[in-house]
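Sequence decides. Our protein:
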Amino acid sequence: MLARRPLSEGEVAQRLGRKGVTEGEIARVLARLRDLRWIDDAVLCLRLARSYQERRRYGPAKIAWTLASRRFPRELVACALREVASPEQVTVAAAMALRKKFREGIPPGREGAAKAYRFLAGRGFPPGVCRAAIGRRWNESFEGEE
């Protein structure tokens, strides 16, 4: 299982449970994997949170949802978000996501702004950050025309 990609303890436990492994055996396997340092939820959770923000340009809500879907404990997800989702980092990630999606600039009109807002909201950015990033990108699009 771990040869393909790193997994959280929750994912390993879930997969073993599906194969009919008992709870006691799962606990022993997880303990052994921890001893061998083949799984480390704290390190993996933080690494994934950084990757989701820097490479995929996800916002805090989408990062939290994605980490929770990978069966990380809530405390680790919250800790990872505190580490990677400062207001400045979230604003920069939203601006970078817009820049990548709309290379030629946000389409004109309300429809274009709405499309950009839906894109950022779907990526898990809060409403205020969405509006600020769209306003900044919108202004950048028209500065070159004057």
